[in-house]
Amino acid sequence: MEEKDCIFCKIANGEIPAATIYENSDLRVILDVAPANRGHALIIPKEHFKDIFDIDAVSAGKVFSLATEVARAMKDVLHCDGLNIVQNNGAVAGQTVFHLHLHLIPRFEGDSVHVGWEPGSSTPEELQTLAKEIRKRI
Ligand code: 5GP
Ligand code: ZN
What we know:
By secondary structure, the chain is α+β, with helices and mostly antiparallel strands. The protein contains three helices and five strands, in the order αβββαββα. Bound molecules: guanosine-5'-monophosphate and zinc ion.
């Protein structure tokens, strides 16, 4: 179902134009209008899912499955040295369009793209306790 006033619903369903790399009945792949690097692509489901907490596993699987094919095609064309896959959930995590999408960001030696975090610290006990807590919910 399309969400009113959602730009990615409109793009994914072809109501607003975008440079489309690929389209099938479930998904559209477009080039990002404000690319982090040349070739920065977005995989967008046609159905409105807000984020990772909202999407079902089968639909999410289709997104990542297509990413394998798009990534290979991008590598062939762009000759990138690497590629980041980024998927933001929630404003605090950098999400600005609240319709789930996967970023495929080609990386080139010496580029100035920033994706990442400073490594933190942990103890084995803390990790085991937390892993157990989360495991119980899966
Ligand atoms: P987010 O921050 O939500 O993970 O990523 C949203 C992305 O969508 C941004 O990289 C932004 O440049 C891109 N974007 C936003 N509006 C449009 C649009 O109208 N067309 C295209 N092609 N990309 C868009
Ligand atoms: Zn939407």
